């Protein structure tokens, strides 16, 4: 399987995919950290991440795959949403929470 096929499989295999530097627990750049925080605050519980620092082939080829030059890169339902700035803008407008709620049913707390 080529690296572009691997990327495609990741993007299609999960409703929310964030290609980032590091992990949600240990982000390795401020942009990745802010994107993860926005996703969590918007209600993303089913967040799948790919650490591009652990896979140089993905890091080198993802910009070509997505036609987006920087990291992190957020995909929702197989579609590139954008990087950190766009993710934060969507979060601040409430749009990110709406997008997430459409693919991930709200967890109802039972007393």
From TrEMBL:
Keywords: 2Fe-2S, Iron, Iron-sulfur, Metal-binding, Redox-active center. Glutathione binds at residues 21, 59, 71, 84-85. The keyword Iron applies. Residues 16-81 form the Glutaredoxin domain. [2Fe-2S] cluster binds at residue 29. GO terms for molecular function: 2 iron, 2 sulfur cluster binding; disulfide oxidoreductase activity; metal ion binding. This is Glutaredoxin. It comes from Marilutibacter alkalisoli.
């Amino acid at each position: 399987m080529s690296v572009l096929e691997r990327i495609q499989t990741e993007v299609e295999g999960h409703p929310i995919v964030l290609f980032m530097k590091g992990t949600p627990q240990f982000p390795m750049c401020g942009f990745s950290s802010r994107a993860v925080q926005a996703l969590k605050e918007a209600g993303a519980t089913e967040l799948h991440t790919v650490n591009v620092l652990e896979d140089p082939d993905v890091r080198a080829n993802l910009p070509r795959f997505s036609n987006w030059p920087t990291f992190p890169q957020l995909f929702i339902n197989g579609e590139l949403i954008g990087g950190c700035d766009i993710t934060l803008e969507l979060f601040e407008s409430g749009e990110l929470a709406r997008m997430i709620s459409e693919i991930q049913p709200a967890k109802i707390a039972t007393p």
